[in-house]
């Protein structure tokens, strides 16, 4: 527990991961967020310090966990000039937990390694409640010795960890997971939307789905919410659109045509354009139920 | 067990249902199939009689179980003129187990009831192995007293029975089940196809899918088959195209736009056009893996 930990990006996931590690006895020595009030509030809660600069986090912590929104934000915090996590980064280990394109992970790794720092991908396939109770499903990629050096920390965050391979590989698998999850979510919304239009009892339909080839994890996590229009956000429609986009970009580079993933991204982008992007992904049912949107 | 049973349509599902009821001690007194050799072979196996006419089945059995391919075949066996199951049908009960449009169930019921016969929908959400061992998931619709009159027979076929409502309702739910199942199948094929193109270990990817939001029943039933190109048919791509089409027709009548279901039907229709329609639905992976089709 002698390693000190910094956090960059303390939205609900990052904040809960910080709370969890603090609860486990780790010292969170620096917190940065583009929204400085978020960093201040969490720093007070955890007896930590909000950092006004990215460089300040690197200066204050051995291990820096980053949970930012997208590729652009990630490249911004690891910028080659101006304020950056890379300033005096020698010996530091960056654990990057956002869902990003593989190329961004590789670019960040190359820049960090050139300065004598290390990076690891820790892609999460879980949500905010799992972050708080240490039960994240974590897909790890990077150098095995770097993984070993931070394994005790990761084990406090995750009860299911899977080493996937070299850097960039976890981002690939994560993009696939979310692409398939988003397809299943969009498909479920169509099934329940049609059931509703047919005048069927949705509770009965969900029960039958659960016993048949229509069963899925998203039926369990999102089916009732679709029925009840409870779209409090665990994983936003905007994130779903972004993640399906990462997978589709990989597919495009490889010359693959994926019509279901394409249709799914279009649906989540419709939500964003309709101002529904901050609803939970279950909110896609607002597009498929008659009279809702 | 005093009720005698006839079968119309003894493809692999119908034949296994007949075998199961025969094994349970029921007398299968007449078997008809458009392919008369299939009827002859099964009749010999079960000590039954192949009927050369539909009317002959109605004459020989109290309960007639029909398992035909589609709406057109169903309307053909219940034709208003010529050879038909409706000839001298008074007092008979027809249990219709094919996946049909709700409108066809209602039309057949109206014609049968006018002659003093009864009908019941017994929509199956399972496959040939479950038909043989009596573990079908059965969605039943029709008049409750008709259901009660044949319940002992259905209980030999199904260990999970769900009464859905009046005639036509089971067909609606079945269309929804298969529509969502087909979407999940097509989406899984895209996920594994992209994983393969990315050079990832598909066994690892399936294991990760199973632990995350990408998990689904079709991952369990079809994932390994997609990886291994084992597309021996349990539920054909041609049937998947047809069933998604039934759901989309219902949606169209109600003014609903379902982009995922539409894209899924197009994929299964591509298989049919490519001569792959008799592969199992898992064969959709042949479209999404590079270098396969």
Word description of this protein:
- 2 copies of one chain form a homodimer.
- The first copy, chain A, has helices at 12-23, 36-46, 54-60, 71-77, 102-114, 128-133, 144-157, 169-197, 202-210, 217-228, 237-253, 259-273, 285-288, and strands at residues 4-8, 27-32, 63-66, 93-96, 118-124, 136-142, 158-165.
- By secondary structure, chain A is α/β, with parallel strands linked by helices.
- In chain A, helix 8 (169-197) crosses helix 12 (259-273) and helix 9 runs antiparallel to helix 10 (217-228).
- The model of chain A has no long low-confidence stretch (mean pLDDT 96).
- At the A-B interface, strand 7, helix 8, helix 9, helix 10 and helix 11 of A face strand 7, helix 8, helix 9, helix 10 and helix 11 of B.
Summarize the structure.
The structure is a homodimer of 293-residue chains. By secondary structure, chain A is of the alpha/beta class.
Specify the structural class of chain A. Answer: alpha/beta
The major β-sheet of chain A equals: 7 strands, mixed
Q: Please report the number of helical segments of chain A.
A: 13
Q: What fraction of the residues of chain A are assigned to beta strands by DSSP?
A: 5-15%
Order of helices and strands of chain A: EHEHHEHEHEHEHEHHHHHH
CATH architecture of the largest domain in chain A: 3-Layer(aba) Sandwich
The span between the termini of chain A is: 51 Å
| Apparent shape of chain A | globular
Largest interface: A-B, 60 and 60 residues
Poorly predicted segments of chain A: none
Assembly type of the chains comes to homodimer
Q: How many structural domains are formed by the residues of chain A?
A: 2
What's the CATH C level of the largest domain in chain A?
Alpha Beta
Strand order of the largest sheet of chain A: 2-1-3-4-5-6-7
Q: What percent of residues of chain A adopt helix (DSSP H or I)?
A: 40-55%
What is the residue-averaged pLDDT of chain A?
96
Overall radius of gyration of chain A: 20 Å
CATH topology of the largest domain in chain A: Rossmann fold
């Amino acid at each position: 527990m002698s390693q000190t930990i910094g956090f960059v990006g303390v939205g609900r996931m990052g904040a809960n991961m910080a709370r969890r590690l603090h609860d486990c006895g780790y010292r969170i020595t620096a917190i940065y967020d583009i929204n400085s009030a978020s960093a201040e509030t969490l720093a007070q809660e955890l007896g930590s310090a909000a950092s006004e600069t990215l460089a300040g986090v690197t200066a204050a912590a051995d291990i820096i966990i980053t949970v930012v929104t997208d590729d652009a934000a990630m490249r911004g915090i690891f910028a080659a000039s101006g304020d950056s996590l890379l300033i005096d980064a020698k010996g530091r280990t960056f654990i990057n937990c956002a869902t990003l394109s593989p190329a961004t992970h590789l670019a960040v790794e190359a820049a960090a390694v050139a300065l004598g720092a290390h990076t690891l991908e820790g892609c999460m396939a879980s949500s905010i409640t799992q972050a708080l109770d240490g039960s994240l499903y974590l897909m790890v990629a990077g150098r095995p010795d770097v993984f070993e050096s931070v394994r005790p920390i990761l084990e406090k965050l995750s009860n299911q960890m899977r080493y996937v391979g070299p850097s960039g590989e976890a981002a690939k698998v994560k993009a696939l997971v979310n692409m398939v999850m988003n397809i299943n979510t969009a498909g479920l919304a169509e099934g329940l939307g049609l059931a509703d239009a047919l005048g069927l009892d949705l509770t009965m339909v969900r029960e039958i789905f659960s016993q048949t080839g229509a069963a899925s994890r998203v039926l369990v996590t999102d089916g009732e919410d679709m029925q009840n229009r409870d779209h409090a956000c665990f994983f936003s429609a905007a994130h779903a659109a972004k993640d399906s986009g990462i997978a589709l970009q990989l597919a495009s580079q490889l010359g693959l045509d994926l019509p279901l993933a394409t249709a799914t991204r279009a649906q989540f982008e419709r939500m964003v354009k309709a101002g529904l992007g901050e609803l939970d992904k279950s909110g896609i049912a607002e597009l498929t139920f008659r009279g809702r949107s």
